[in-house]
Amino acid sequence: MKNQLACKSTNLGQCGRLRWGLRTPRRTGGGPRRSTCREAWGWSACAIAALGLALFTTLPPHRTWSLSAAVGYGCAAMTAARLAKRRRPSRSAVFPHELSLILAVMGSVVVPLLLLVWDSSAQLEVAVVERSGDLLLHSGSPYIPAPTTVGDYNPYLPGMAVFGLPHALFGGGPLTDARWWMAGAFFVTMAAATRTLFRRGRGVAGGRPGAPTAPRFATAPVLLWLAACPLVALPLAVGGIDLPVIGLMCWGLAAAANGTPGRAGLLIGAAAALKWTAWPAAPVVLALVAARHGRRSALAAAAATALTVLTAVVPFLLTAPRAFVENVLAFPLGLGSATSPAASPLPGWLLATYVPGGAIIAMVLLAVAAIGVAGSLAIRPPRTVRAAADRLAIGLALAMALMPATRFGYLVYPLVLWAWPRLMQVATATGPRSAICRRSLDHASLSEVVLGDLSEEIGPGVVPGPDQRQADGLRQGCGTGHVSVPQRVTEQADRKRRAPEVGEETML
Asked: Which secondary structure element, helix H or strand E, spans residue 105, and what is its range?
């Protein structure tokens, strides 16, 4: 009994040293320093891009965002550069990598959003959404029957008016600004999508029974990295119309891979009830569901999508058909009394502006691209979330580039769809570095937890450090009767070789 108590107290003494070993694993070749240098250069590029936008933009909200974001990205770059010069990483409570990311998010999202909301400065689309919520509440339709100016048009589907209801119910004010609710919807849906795939991936890809999942602590970095991207941070601060649509699309893809076709159909239907740009996601999700779970599940997802869209759109189409057609169909196609302000110099706009009959040529090219993507779904349907997101990103990138009325802000769709599954793969592969301090000790001794996590961190083919060898000697001296650390490392390495293949097929 005394030997066991002495052994446990000694193991408790070793926990602190092993914990720091997990936080700063010993690697050779300067990999972390190279990564930090690349991070510093990346933040510097973002700061230069923000300053360039401040010089050339004519919109006051964009200029406010540019100046604030340039400061935030610059501070993040200096923090990362300072870390790259250190020979040994810091052991502070807030890791320098995380500090640079937090500085970037504060400067590019939090500070400009607060300033713009307080000053009531935003893109025109925010006022359109708030007015549509007021119209929906008082007249039953979010559309003006006979719009004349660009500000009178509401080119969004009826579901978008939901984000304007707080402004209609409680009046104007900083807390009822539609940007808060659209940003909240984006983060909530992206967090739900990430957690859905994380739970699925950890259940299949490995891990000891009863061990807590790494995604519990890895969801926030994925969201922060997405928010820090300039193409996401800018709409978060000045507009944000497209972000809830993207979040629902990603959540629908995650639900389709998770084996819940009904939920996937509802989510894609909700996104399609907000904006037309979500409609290409429906065939991709259906192809993913059919490839993974069969045609019957795909039919269930299609029925849920159709029911959601019809419930949200048909009542307004029947009660005010002329207003619906004028706002939602004629204006985006350039057939209304006013011209859409979406005019970025992308191929479709250039063809429609400078080539005789260029609008028809752009529409033909757009149809050819849509047929090509649909053919790829039929010939080789995606079987993973990453493949489906890539296919959808390609289709949306082609659509945004070839539409006669388009803008650079639409590129946020393919960017998030491309980056999101890759960020999740990195988070799933690394896991939380400090998860050892959060592990429960009800069913395992502290030494077993510490050595098990240390084996997972070290991985195959790496010579154990002094802390590991010392802990191994403690275990053998205490006579626990368990397998040795080298044998445990070999077994877990074999599992890790098999697990990514299974996890890649079933999750990402």
From this structure: helix 96-105
- Describe the crossing of helices 412-430 and 215-228 by its angle, rounded to 10 degrees: 150
The string of pLDDT tens digits covering residues 95-107 is 445 888 999 999 9
- The pLDDT of residue 264 is 94
User: Rounded to an integer, what is the distance from CA 149 to the centroid of its chain?
Assistant: 35
How far apart, in whole angstroms, are the C-alpha atoms of residue 18 and residue 453?
Answer: 10
Give the residue among 181, 271, 188 at the shortest CA–CA distance from 223: 188
- Contacts of residue 360, Cβ cutoff 8 Å, sequence gap at least 6: none
Is the Cβ–Cβ distance between 395 and 368 less than 8 Å? no
Report the distance separating Cα 274 and Cα 277, nearest Å: 9
> Which residues lie below 8 Å from residue 114, measured CB to CB, with a gap of 6+?
none
Instruction: State the Cα–Cα distance between residues 376 and 391, nearest whole angstrom.
Output: 9
Distance (Å) of CA 346 to CA 82, 241, 341, 366, 407 = 39, 20, 14, 13, 8
Q: Residues 6 or more apart from 80 whose CB is under 8 A from it? A: 36, 37, 39, 40, 43, 96, 97, 100
C-beta of residue 268 within 8 angstroms of C-beta of residue 252: yes
**pTM for this predicted structure:** 0.76
Q: CB 505: neighbour CB atoms within 10 A? A: 13
